[in-house]
Amino acid sequence: MTYPVARPRRLRRTPALRRLVAETRLHAADLVLPMFVKDELTEPVPLTSMPGVLQHTRDSLRRAAAEAVAAGVGGLMVFGIPARRDAVGTAATDPDGILNVALADLAAEVGGDTVLMADLCLDEFTDHGHCGVLAADGSVDNDATLLRYRDMALAQAAAGADLVGTSGMMDGQVAAVRDALDGAGHLDTGVFAYAAKYASAFYGPFREAVDSALQGDRRTYQQDPANRRESAREVALDVAEGADLVMVKPAMSYLDVLSDTVAAVDVPVAAYQVSGEYAMISAAAERGWIDRDRAITESLLGIRRAGAQIVLTYWATEVATRLQAEGAA
Ligand code: PBG
């Protein structure tokens, strides 16, 4: 009998040993909660494809935000659903538009205690559901869209957003938004760039969450899931244009891209565990096919282990609350 020279199992023997040698930990402060607020809503509406997630009223949004902040969540990412849509997404730039008033509500309610972020994209606001305005031939007009993004950034900054989340995948959007913000004196409003963002099937439930009107798809502006090196280019462009943080999205199917991004840049890197990732785990857990809490934790650890410093997840409040209870937050 020869004895194994190395016994990795030694360090796995007790919970205390495993805790000591854990390489990755979850912290509430690293989690960001995406939230939906809908105009002219009187009661919050539960989303069937995202059990536990709501379309909020302005009031319920405030309460849910306060709850998230009390649990120690690091930031909030707000999405607005207007009552009326048009071709250019007027409600996105209207100071009285739902997203902007909701940001102002949250700035007043929890502003000093958390990082307030806004999705900067037109798809929730346009009647055709695309992330930009359309040219005469029906294609998404990149540069005309940049003008709308500039105004949208100004409205969100004025409403109190700390960071604007450029998520439309138009070329030059970070530079355009940075220039608009600086020109209006919003020097301290940061750009949280959805830098590597794929045309993903995992956004499916999000379409319900924002009552999306989209026909067709976003493949002429979001990235092809087949591509890895292309993300390096997208990320480098966003950083060169002035992105303060960059994001990879979705998360779980793009951990290679995430890992590449972390190695390539010196700004903070986030990953977005999107609606379909949430829905998959929720649905399998509902059927008793996987252990819900363990699967949630493992998915978030995987995203953190791949290098994301910040994770956007619809479970942010729940996980933060659990961490608080465990005394690990
Ligand atoms: C664009 C945006 C989308 C998501 C976040 N920002 C939709 C899309 O790009 O099609 C998806 C988020 C999710 O699925 O959880 N406004």
Automatic annotation (TrEMBL):
InterPro entries reported in the protein's UniProt record: ALAD, ALAD_AS, Aldolase_TIM
Example of a GO cellular component annotation carried by this entry: cytosol
PROSITE patterns xrefs: D_ALA_DEHYDRATASE
GO BP: any one term: heme biosynthetic process
Binding site for Mg(2+): E234
Enzyme Commission no: 4.2.1.24
Superkingdom in the source lineage: Bacteria
Residues reported in the UniProt entry to bind 5-aminolevulinate 1: R207, R218
Protein name: Delta-aminolevulinic acid dehydratase
Organism: Nakamurella endophytica
